[in-house]
User: Fold this.
Amino acid sequence: MARVKYNSSDIDLMARMMRAEAEGEGKLGMLMVGNVIINRAKAGCLDFKDLRSISDVIYQVQGDNYSFEAVQKGNVFYQRAREVERRLAEQTIKYWREHPSKYALWYFNPYGECPPTWYGQPFAGQFKEHCYYEPEANTCEGAYRW
Assistant:
């Protein structure tokens, strides 16, 4: 059973996002980015209360800008999703979760050391250049549900 509802367009959009945000970090890095997308769609808390779909997550605007750099800069649309990214996206939607992105709602590349908190939430771990942050359990129970 899938972790969130999805269709073929969602797979393609998520695959493009995963590639744009983490292609340089290999398959595992792209899976971790995909996991954050799914976690946000499931969380129902904090900045992610009104997100109900993969598209809602990817096109979310916070402040005056899109949440993801790939959408802000447009490079999410520069490349079509290849079959390998489509398979990774579907894998993440259906079952994949792994530390440090297992419960993470945020990630970023600081071009240096990972700060101990991000948006007031604790550091969960690092994979290559990306730092991952998960919410305090008492602030977002939805992030910790399957």
User: Anything to note?
Assistant: The chain has a mean pLDDT of 93. The chain is about 40% helix and 15% strand.
